Every structure is written in structure tokens, then in C-alpha cells.
Amino acid sequence: MEVDARPVVTAALVAGLLAGYGIAVPVGAVGTYLVSLTARTSFRVGAFAALGIASADGVYALVAVAGGSVLAPALQPFLVPLRWASAVVLVALAVRGGVSALRQYRTPANASGETPPGPVRAYIGLLGMTLLNPTTVVYFTALVLGSRTAAEPPEAVVFVVAAFVASASWQLVLAGGGAVLGRVLTSSRGRLVSALVSSLLIAGLAVRLVAG
After folding, report:
1. Strand ranges for the chain from DSSP E
2. Residue 139: how many CA atoms within 13 Å on its side-chain side?
3. What is the pLDDT of residues 166-201, one digit of tens each?
4. Close Cβ partners of 141 (under 8 Å, ≥ 6 residues apart)
5. How many CB atoms lie within 10 A of CB 64?
6. Is 47 exposed, middle or buried, given 0-12, 13-18 or 19+ CB atoms closer than 10 A?
7. Are the beta carbons of 122 and 37 closer than 8 angstroms?
8. How far are the Cα atoms of 7, 22, 193 from residue 101, in angstroms, in the given order?
9. What is the DSSP string of 174-200?
């Protein structure tokens, strides 16, 4: 009798989408730069920059999944405490993001006076900027090591692709919004709301880890 793998794949898809949106939604320095870059250049340049950010998120998701798959057999006896530890890390990230947003609520975004790059340079630049963010790799590693979602290759691929698609879709929304949407999301209130939404998503993932 064949086992229906659809529920497992669907769970990996949902987990990947939530993970991608959880790390992508807060509009911080990179998101602010993305929107202002699009407003100063074109949607084409902004789209390349957005995909650079999403590519970095996808790379870190892939690294976390691969590392989790290698470590899974050795960590099998410690799954329960590891799941709780991962949940604690995610809650800490959620709290840190929320507290940081509240602290920066009254801090205006700094304008950039640099010459706008072309599409390829925008992609490479935003990819590099996002890869330098250690929170991203900690976030995905905590999710993968604390969950069975990406334990097998099919689910792992679905998880990574879903995380990339979620991140890309949000970054493209920021780029597509340009100056109009940018004024809303990169305002003090917009950045606060987006960061708090992200914190709630991350906290929800932490609850899902310990409840599943």
C-alpha cells in the first residue's frame, strides 16, 4: 500500500511559505533601500534587487535544510529538547524584532545619495547585503532543526522553494509599490506594523514547533 505523501508535502509548503514571509515581512534597512531604489530607478531594477534578497533567503533556507538533514540522525535522541530550544530561539527573534521596531518607531529612514545601480548590480548588491544578516541563518536553522518538516528530500525541496517564493513575492510587492507604497511601508508607523506582523508570524511558528 502506497503512503499518500501529499499531506507531508503540503505541510512543508505551508511551513516554507510561513517561514519565508516571517523573515521577509519586516521592512528594515534592506527593505527601505529596495523601495527607495525602485522609486529612484524603475521596477525592472527593483525587481532584480528584490530577487537578490529572496535568493539570499533561499540560500540560507537551503543551507539550514542541508545541515539539518545531515545532523538529524545524531540529534534523534534529543528531538524534544531541541524542538523546545528552537522554539525559544524563534520567540527570542520575534521579541527582538518587535522591541527593535518599537525602539526605532520614531527614527526616520536615512536617504541615500549614491548613484542608482543597474539591474545586475542591484541583484548582486542586495544579495550581498542580505547574506550579511546573521538573523536569517539563525532563523532558518532554528526552524529546520526544530521541526520534521524538511526531513526528507521532497519536503526539503518544497520547503526551500516555498520560502524563496514567499520572500520573493513580498520583496516584489515592495518593489512594485515604488514611491507610493514605499511612503506607507517605510514610514515609522509602517515599519512598526510590518515588524510586529513578522514577530507574530515567527512566534506562531515557535508555537507550532512545540505543539506539533
Report:
1. none
2. 31
3. 999 999 988 887 656 656 666 677 777 777 777 787
4. 63, 64, 67, 68
5. 26
6. buried
7. yes
8. 36, 15, 8
9. HHHHHHHHHHHHTSHHHHHHHHHHHHH
Answer yes or no: are the C-beta atoms of 188 and 106 closer than 8 Å. yes
What's the pTM? 0.68
CATH architecture of 6-106+115-211: Up-down Bundle (1.20)
> Contact at 8 Å (CB) between 131 and 30?
no
The full DSSP string for 106-158 is TPPPPP--SPPP-HHHHHHHHHHHHHT-HHHHHHHHHHHHT-STTSSHHHHHH
**Residue pair 203/197 in contact by the 8 Å Cβ criterion:** no
Would you list the domain boundaries of the chain?
6-106+115-211
Q: What's the chain's length in residues?
A: 212
